[in-house]
Amino acid sequence: MSRQSASSSPFGGSGIGGLRAEDAAAWERMRAGLRRELGKDVFDSWLSRLTLADATPTDVRLRAPTRFIAGWVEETYGDALRSHAARCFDPSRRVVVETRDPDERPAGAAPDAADRDRAVVAAARRCAHAS
Hints:
alpha+beta
């Protein structure tokens, strides 16, 4: 299968461009299992924005849109993620929840909350130093 980018996907967020079909199917099964176990509200609030960044022989790499969501998901739902990844992928793979590189924003994409927060802090610092 050739590696190609997808702009949108049923696998969550910005897509799973270039992943093998069996990994994409395992991710979809994992998402369905998490939604059943944790409930629609929890899934929609915290896990629906995770995407499958990569699946290697040793890792299942999930991508969260912000560091806060990545940390919260890992801390609160890490056991459920590992349990479902073991069932849907391979029990020996570890689950890694990461964030996108802030410089990786797709062309034309709106800034996220973290970008806005950094801009507000920078503006406040400039005002504080100007007075």
